[in-house]
Amino acid sequence: MNTPGRCNAADLLESVAAVTALPPFDRPPQETRIIVGMSGGVDSSVAAWRLMQQGYQVEGLFMKNWNEDDGTEYCTAREDLLDAMQVAGVLGIELHTANFAEEYWDRVFEHFLAEYRAGRTPNPDILCNKEVKFKAFLDHALTLGADGIATGHYAQANHACAPAELLRAVDANKDQTYFLHAVAGHQFSRTLFPLGDLVKPEVRRMADACGFANSRKKDSTGICFIGERRFKDFLERYLPAQPGLIEDDHGNVIGEHSGLMYYTLGQRQGLGIGGRANADESPWYVAHKDLARNVLIAVQGHDHPLMLCCEVSTEPAHWISGTAPQPGAALTAKTRYRQADQNCRIQVGEDGRLRVAFEQLQRAVTPGQSLVLYDGPRCLGGAVIAETHP
To answer: DSSP letters of 241-254?
Structure first.
């Protein structure tokens, strides 16, 4: 049986010595109380264990962000809570629970629906981090007497700066700074990221050695309130579909769509466009949504000119430090998660909106998604994409 807070595998302790330096919170770890957001997944479980190895006073908190009494049988909250309880039992720590469903609905889901009504494609995970995980959860943890919080995100925080800087994770394949760019630096000053120096296989190895039942649990993908169902089936419960026509780039009608909100720029599958007498056999892609006419524009060719842009304009930007970078600074950007860094230069308007020019043409940049900016390893912040400029 595992001793609470320890793993049987002695070799795991060697990796603990390599943990990225953690902030003191003005007291030694033994006098510092950290509450870990425990989702029932392997990442947050190992995050809690690593902090215990550092000597912190560790507790867990399971967040319920979606009410299951609305017929959403696809949400796995019940199973996730049981997994979190099993891990807390192995570690011998207290597990709190909190219901942030109201905050999630008001601050995240309403915005999610509004964006789809406007024909854009939002990223609710970014807003969830900003409004729930690093605001509602952090505030709740502080009311419980905690000195700070920790999560299982793959990211790093530089607490030598005030406010703290957000840095990329060592595991570039798992780095989650894209989803964290809208959080404020002063909130990162109260946050620990114990997995920032690890790669995912090592995390699973640690969880297995610790005896966590979730050590082989599949990584969660997508959004809890959608779960494993078809996205279209979920969305039509809240937004009425408005079918319309699909046209090519010359204005010819080539099909019908079931509602603009169900399609994303660059999408290839699910268009239902068959072979056409005056067209070649190249696949069709979504290139534009004409909201005024409720028409979907589709083109042939992966790199059709209508799919490409060299500049984008954004909504007002959020800067983690609170200050925009110097004008003309050479930065890199991502317009979607897992995209390779793209060299760019930015202009910041008086209203805080950005004009971002790229060195290379960008494909299928999508309004409603986020453009996130980096200076080397530092994530500076970002903004929601408003429009593209071909």
So the answer is: ---EEEE-TTS-EE
